[in-house]
Amino acid sequence: MAEHPAVAGAPPSVGGADRASTYRTIALRVMPLLVVCYVVSFIDRTNIGIAQQGLKRDLGFGSAVYGLGVTLFFVGFILFEVPSNALLAKIGARKTLVRIMATWGVVTIATLFVQDELTFYLARFLLGVAEAGFFPGALYLLSRWFPSARRTRMTAVFFIGVPVSGVLGSIVSGWIMHSLGGAAGLADWQWLFLIEGIPPILLAVAVAFFLADEPERAKWLTPAQKALVRADLAEERASKGESHGGGLLSALRDPKVWILGLCACGAYTLANAVSYWTPRIIAEAGVGDVLNLGLFSAIPPLLGIVVMLLVGRHSDRTLERRWHAAVSWLVAAVAMLALAFSGGSVFVVVVLLAVMAAAHYSGLTVFYSIPSIYLSERAAATGIAVVTSMGSFAAAASPSLLGFIQASTGSLSLGLVISSGIVLLAVAVLLLGVKAKDLNEKHR
């Protein structure tokens, strides 16, 4: 987190506190726990991708049932996203994250009792309800600790949780199902939900004791360090003025919130292709063993980690957001189109999935720094929630669409072509709807 060489009006220290050292201290304290929480969140959200092999074998769930199950997760997510973040603004991020993680852990464990399509749909819906608010709540928390010129780097660090969850989730889930199936009378997928539902409950306890809502409440910062962060954030708020304040109503009246929401539709369509359909695409290329499926599914997120951090860092150094996100999504759309016509080679499929994943993670990281840069502090929590909720509509629709297309045609190719078109539309909306002058940032 080195200082930019051309920083003007941003002294390296304030009141005796060194700026680089202060933000390094905050990052080392806040980010590891937040990243681990996100890793576990995404594993519990997407482990159904590996579990579907066992669910198909034991309960007869086909692609259409699986797709609708993924969709119902987002239905619950959409319905409770904004209310969860409205509550966050009142009770604080720490209590909100504790509530969310403890609840989703319980629901994940309860999923082992699924017996038919109805209980499967109910479990996925309740998981969406439980997880609603975690992602925008975490981004809101970052806005309380880091000024925007540093926040994309921290957002990139936070987003490491997505590819890391893809790596760990694929390997661990594959191993659980490969090794524990039948033990104690439980099927492999039942062990999966039981074991992977315990960590979020333990993490809820850790967050309650070790995470603070804002620097003023952090006993591990000196008064001078608190003053430095307070001054940086106050300067950022002042640069935005007061015209964007006012919480939910202000966010809903702001056309750029809706523009960003439309962009999020493309981002979430892409996210679903990466997170939920990667195992199925690899399986269709000829990988049948569940352990090998997990290992191959872990490759794309590994590349994603490296590329995402590089793109996020470069975006912060240049303070350029729009083109970093747009070019990343463009690359992902091209890779998705190529997947539709790849011919079924395992090597080609894994390479294209790796390119698509790396571009997806990079674009999403930069894109989600934009709402907190543009919106005022009062509007940030609800504004991010509105953007996320709009994206979740696409996330809710696309799994059922892809599942229906595969069930009807026997292939995901047409679904991938349609999804790539949605991503390309998001690129156009971002570049045309959000102007560079709307993102007023300074290096700090």
UniProtKB/TrEMBL annotation:
Domain Major facilitator superfamily (MFS) profile: 30-438
Residue ranges crossing the lipid bilayer per the database entry: 26-43, 63-84, 96-115, 121-142, 154-177, 189-212, 257-278, 290-311, 323-341, 347-368, 380-405, 411-434
Gene3D superfamilies according to UniProt: MFS general substrate transporter like domains
UniProtKB keywords: Membrane, Transmembrane, Transmembrane helix, Transport
Presence of keyword Transport: yes
An annotated Gene Ontology molecular function: transmembrane transporter activity
Domain of life: Bacteria
Protein name: MFS transporter
Organism expressing this protein natively: Amycolatopsis iheyensis
